[in-house]
Structure formats: structure tokens, C-alpha cells
């Protein structure tokens, strides 16, 4: 077989063939992994709902999306109405997203029927490891900045460092105030989107 001559048209032809082949290969891999990826996301969400509602014995009655403007920007919230094993309403698990220090901060927060925070879990974040990434534990019941049991309807949650008297004071993550503000903003907005329609 004769070797291709090193010319511009031949190089463009070879690069085009390689690009088309790699594009097709990537599309195939994406198609093959879509199903397992969707299953993993559904499992993570189901486990997250159990964690934020503090029980394994629950039923997701309805799931729907609310879009609400905050500061002129639309935010989407996925609301999951939850019932217990006895079919009595336990509250709601709301998925919310806001911009943190390193990128989007996606939180699933559980509220009881009165609007008190039952629990939360971080679904996704791009925060600094060792600093902002501590949000997954910092605001839990035994964490230094616990929000469990607090009701953002009484007063919005805010960072104590800001000394805002109109907010419930919460200790910020050490050296990660921006992430703390973003996290508390996500919780406040989830509350407002559902409870103050």
C-alpha cells in the first residue's frame, strides 16, 4: 500500500476521519452509559430523600417543579411531597441550586409540615476540598453551624459574621464564608419557593 503524501488536503482528510471516528465512539459510550447513570442518579436521590426526611419508611406522593424569581433571576426547585408509612404527610424534600464559591451548589433539603429543617444533603458541588466541601457536615445536627430544627420562615438563615439582626445567626464554615452564604441562601430560597407562594 502506498504511503499518503504529506500534503494539506491529506492531513485535513486524516484529521477529519479521526474526528468523525472519535465523535461516533464518544456518542456510543454516552448512549451506553445513559441508563446506568440515570439509575445511579435516581438511587442517590431516593437515598437523599430518606436522609433529609430522617426515615426509611416513606412514600414520595408527588414530584413537581416550581420556578420562582429571586433578585430578577429565575430559580427552579424540585418539590417532593412525602408521606410516612401511615400515609400521613411528613413534609417536603426540595432540591435547590445556587452559585457557590467554586460553581453550582445543589442541595436537597427536607422540611417538616411546619417549615422546620429536618435534614439536608449535598447532591453536587464544586467547592474547595477541605474548606467549602465541609458543608456536607458543617450544618448537620452535630455540626458547628447546625440548621436542623430551624425555621427559615421565622427569620431567614444568615451567616453570624454578617451580624444581620433580621436573620437567624448560623456559624459559617471556617475560611469558607462564601460557600456558607450560598448554602444558607439555597435553604432560604427553597423555603420561600414552597411555603410562601
What can you tell me about this protein's structure?
It is elongated and about 80 Å long. The protein is 35% helix and 29% strand. With 197 residues, it is of the alpha+beta class. The protein has a 5-stranded antiparallel beta sheet, with helices on both faces. A two-stranded parallel ribbon has the order 6-7. It has helices spanning 8-53, 135-138, 177-195, and strands at 58-70, 73-84, 89-99, 104-111, 117-124, 157-159, 168-170. It starts with 7 loop residues before the first helix and ends with a helix.
Strand percentage: 25-35%
Structural class: alpha+beta
Number of strands: 7
Specify Rg, calculated over alpha carbons.
Answer: 23 Å
Oligomeric category = single chain
Give the overall pLDDT as a whole number: 87
Major β-sheet strand ordering: 1-2-3-4-5
Distance between the termini: 73 Å
- Helicity level: 25-40%
Q: What's the helix count?
A: 3
Query: Judging from the principal axes of the Cα atoms, what is the shape?
Result: elongated
Low-confidence stretches: none
Report on the biggest sheet: 5 strands, antiparallel
Query: H/E series, N to C?
Result: HEEEEEHEEH
In short:
With 197 residues, this protein is an alpha+beta fold. 35% of the residues lie in helices and 29% in strands.
Give the SSE map.
Elements: H1 8-53, E1 58-70, E2 73-84, E3 89-99, E4 104-111, E5 117-124, H2 135-138, E6 157-159, E7 168-170, H3 177-195
Parallel strand pairs: 6-7
Antiparallel strand pairs: 1-2, 2-3, 3-4, 4-5
